[in-house]
Amino acid sequence: MFKTVLFPIDQSREAREAADVVVNVVKTYGSRLVVLSVLEEPTSDTPSPDPMISPELVAKLLAEAEALFSQQGIKAELLERQGKPAFTICDVADEIGAELIIMGCRGLGLTDEGATDSVTTRVINLSPCPVLIVP
């Protein structure tokens, strides 16, 4: 049913908690798992992105995710992209043919408009496939 699952991650507690659901879904359906971390590029609107999120930190986050899933017997494909998180998540989902996106209900990123227009909300509205939000 879900041949390819996309799991966008950040350093949030919600992303870590969603990993348990990812393990369950991937094992149940024998899915291919793609783990994505998006590094937001600075723009003229946001000249300095969060200094806590560096390319080194993203690499470490992906390595930790790979180890976590490996312990569960799951081979995860790792992707690191740059761009606006919600749009990048949806573009990658389309690119890899994802049949499900699993993500935490709140990540680290709020859009400029605030909580009512969070990355999660944008992904729900733009996604080319179903989105499972883990509270």
From TrEMBL:
Q: Which residues form a coiled coil?
A: none
Q: Ranges for the UspA domain?
A: 1-135
Q: Which CDD domains match?
A: USP-like
The record's similarity note reads: Belongs to the universal stress protein A family.
Q: What is this protein called?
A: UspA domain-containing protein
Which organism is this entry from?
Richelia sinica FACHB-800
